Amino acid sequence: MAAMLQQEALTNLLMWIYLPKSLQSAVHGVVTGEDYVSAIRTTIRAGGCNSSRSSIIGACFGAQVGVEGIPADWRAKTLRYEQVLELARRVVSNRSSF
């Protein structure tokens, strides 16, 4: 059901067009998603520009659930995971300087 709703929203937002429409579609995925994994899988199955939507959805859910909310096997498959995590920690610790 969620995949169908996502598909309808993406169709209405012209999902086949580059990033600007992907943002609105990703917000829909965040708002309607049940959890980190299902929200990302739903947007991947919906097709279109799913890589940019998945990145945005993952960032939003990740900010909500923290590193522990991201499946360990997904973290293990992330290229340069430790470097990415360190960069994210630096961004968070320096956010007041932006």
From TrEMBL:
Endpoints of the signal sequence: none
Cofactor requirements of the protein: Mg(2+)
Pfam families the record matches: ADP_ribosyl_GH (PF03747)
InterPro entries: ADP-ribosylglycohydrolase, Ribosyl_crysJ1, Ribosyl_crysJ1_sf
Presence of the UniProt keyword Transmembrane in the record: no
Keyword Metal-binding listed: yes
Keywords: Magnesium, Metal-binding
Gene3D superfamilies (UniProt xref): ADP-ribosylation/Crystallin J1
Molecular function (Gene Ontology), one example: metal ion binding
Free-text comment on the cofactor: Binds 2 magnesium ions per subunit.
Source species, domain of life: Eukaryota
Similarity comment: family membership: Belongs to the ADP-ribosylglycohydrolase family.
Full protein name: Hypp4567 protein
Organism: Branchiostoma lanceolatum
Gene name, Swiss-Prot/TrEMBL: Hypp4567
